[in-house]
Write a structure and sequence with these properties.
alpha+beta; 37% strand; 3 helices; 3-stranded antiparallel beta sheet; 139 residues; 5-stranded antiparallel beta sheet; homotrimer
């Protein structure tokens, strides 16, 4: 069995934002030399997500609005987590809806995707350096 | 290490619907010959889900109503994604709540499940042919 | 390839509650002898979750309030699932938001985590014995 590990780093300049990380993950898969296996891609933080959906700007706008409606940032004193001096309780909630991780099949050395599947980093408490872990196992 | 791949195809006749795909996944596990390992089951689309819950008709009705409340289909012009000519922005949102994929343990050649766990395909933009990927790795 | 399986059991004394299970999962990883691989941790039930977030009491209070707002327990007759004699339809909904499982990388024999990542069992229909499955594969 082969395994491979790489950290990707991002600095999203806004509090909320989405970035297509499919090219970086595809590079990891190629560099791993794994032909058949699985790749795990997860946020190493608890206020951001890795998820798979469409690379469409309008949809990302819709996600932003929708998540704000389901888990509003303000009033920040609404959340007990923010009593600790943080103001990011809503980010911990948004991340649960969008998920922490994706697991993707590797077949014949490539990400085994449907037509429109793309991997995104979803940031809900940005303006700082964040990390994503890519772990490949297989043969 | 062994690996196995199969696509399942579905054509749900309604916009929203749920289908128990546990028998098909169990067949994949048996056909893979893997005794100890993991099986990844994921939608290959971005407006549908694979998830694990109860095979109970009333619950599926409740999921349908609840998802419509959290991410309403109409008014379709509420969503920027629908400016592209689509009307399925809400399907992309619903899919995030229900998830893209499940990873299930394989033990002694079988799906390693609790009493009530069943795997479902959840469709949020149906009336067309869709695919689910089953990937098994192990030994 | 090595594999390892263990069930963890819990009895949360309230209907809703969160428990940090990172120490138990870390013990499984050590006992497995796997140095490079993946660990799957999933609820074996359909009204509870395994998820990764912050070990902060205020946040768990916020999760409880937020989930109750998104998927209220009462009125129980609002849900068709409860026509079966159950009163836990909301628990099946809450579990979908928080997720069934996590997959975590194992690197150099340890859980490969970011600074604040901790694994939780999230109970939404407690006051009874429940099980979590830990499955490790790797080498």
């Amino acid at each position: 069995m082969k395994s491979f590990r790489r950290e990707l780093t991002f600095d999203i300049p806004t509090r909320v934002g989405f970035r297509n990380i499919t090219p970086e993950v595809a590079t990891c898969v190629r560099d791993s030399g794994v032909r058949e296996g699985l790749v795990l891609v997860n946020s190493m933080h608890i206020t951001s997500s890795v998820f798979i959906n469409d690379d469409e700007r309008g949809l990302h706008h819709d996600y932003t609005q929708w998540l704000e409606r389901l888990a509003p940032h303000a009033p920040i004193e609404h959340y007990r987590h923010n009593d600790t001096g943080e103001d990011n309780a809503d980010s911990h909630l948004k991340r649960q809806i969008m998920g922490r991780e994706v697991v993707v099949a590797i077949t014949q050395g490539e990400l085994d995707f449907g037509t429109w599947e793309q991997i995104f980093y979803g940031e809900f408490d940005g303006r700082r350096r964040k990390r994503v872990l890519v772990k490949v196992i297989g043969e």
